[in-house]
């Protein structure tokens, strides 16, 4: 059975991507990185449940201190834009941007994939977030894969980054996730670490709009 490493935040997009890998018959290994994000404990809880729900072969929980305190997302008690401060269709990068995050996290996933002999690394990059986050774009995936051709040992076959949602918006991802029975109800999208989703941060607003536009009942409980 082919192996796939799935970089999973515990959120909607990466969970759908991991479910796609599993349903395609791959042996799935999840990797989740705690890098100082305010909601890291909620994400860990979510990804553990997701690993069980999709039948993942293993879950690696890794910790990285590089980003702590370098972004609103990774600074404890820092103010996260909410409500009308958020523009869902903006091309500007918000203060929750974490510098070169996907480059670093994908490098970690690639190291794990080479160790396992996995042929693929699945990610939840998508068109909606690519508007303001450049490391979600197809060009990023293409160039990273080119880098991997020169980044592994001579006796290894380089894994390939697979981004099955890269051309999709959130409503399309919700519809697809529903069709393939991804455990959407287990996912955590909120940037904050409350008992339930805040409902007003950028990530919550993308999630809410996705379910509404998809015409799919939203299983999420929101504070606001």
Secondary-structure blueprint:
Blueprint: E1 3-7, H1 12-23, E2 27-34, H2 40-54, E3 58-63, H3 101-116, E4 120-122, H4 127-130, H5 138-148, E5 160-162, H6 170-179, H7 202-214
Parallel strand pairs: 1-2, 1-4, 2-3, 4-5
Largest sheet: 5 strands, parallel
Mean pLDDT across residues: 94
Query: What name does the CATH topology carry?
Result: Rossmann fold
Order of helices and strands: EHEHEHEHHEHH
Number of helices: 7
- Report the portion of residues in β strands: 5-15%
Structural commentary:
With 224 residues, the protein is α/β, with parallel strands linked by helices. The protein has one domain: 3-Layer(aba) Sandwich (Rossmann fold), CATH 3.40.50. It is 36% helix and 11% strand. It has helices spanning 12-23, 40-54, 101-116, 127-130, 138-148, 170-179, 202-214, and strands spanning 3-7, 27-34, 58-63, 120-122, 160-162. It has a 5-stranded parallel sheet, with helices on both faces. The termini are far apart.
Short description:
With 224 residues, the protein is of the alpha/beta class.
Which terms would index this structure?
single chain; 224 residues; alpha/beta; Rossmann fold; five-stranded parallel β-sheet; 7 helices; 5 strands
């Amino acid at each position: 059975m082919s192996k796939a490493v799935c970089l999973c935040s515990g959120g909607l997009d990466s969970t759908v991507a991991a479910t796609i890998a599993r349903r395609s018959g791959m042996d799935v290994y999840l990797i989740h990185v705690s890098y100082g994000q305010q909601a890291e404990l909620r994400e860990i809880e979510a990804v553990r449940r997701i690993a069980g729900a999709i039948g993942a072969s293993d879950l690696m929980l890794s910790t990285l201190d590089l980003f702590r305190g370098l972004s609103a997302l990774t600074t404890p008690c820092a103010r996260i834009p909410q409500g009308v401060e958020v523009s869902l269709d903006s091309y500007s990068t918000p203060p929750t941007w974490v510098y070169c995050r996907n480059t670093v996290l994908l490098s970690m996933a690639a190291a794990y994939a080479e160790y396992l002999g996995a042929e693929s690394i699945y990610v939840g990059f998508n068109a909606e977030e690519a508007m303001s986050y450049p490391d979600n774009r197809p060009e990023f995936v293409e160039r990273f894969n080119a880098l991997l051709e020169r980044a592994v040992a001579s006796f290894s076959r380089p894994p390939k980054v697979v981004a099955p949602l890269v051309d999709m918006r959130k409503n399309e991802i919700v519809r697809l996730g529903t069709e393939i029975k991804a455990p959407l109800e287990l996912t955590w999208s909120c940037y904050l670490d409350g008992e339930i989703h805040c409902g007003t941060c950028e990530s919550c607003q993308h999630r809410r709009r996705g379910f509404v536009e998809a015409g799919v009942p939203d299983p999420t409980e929101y504070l606001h």
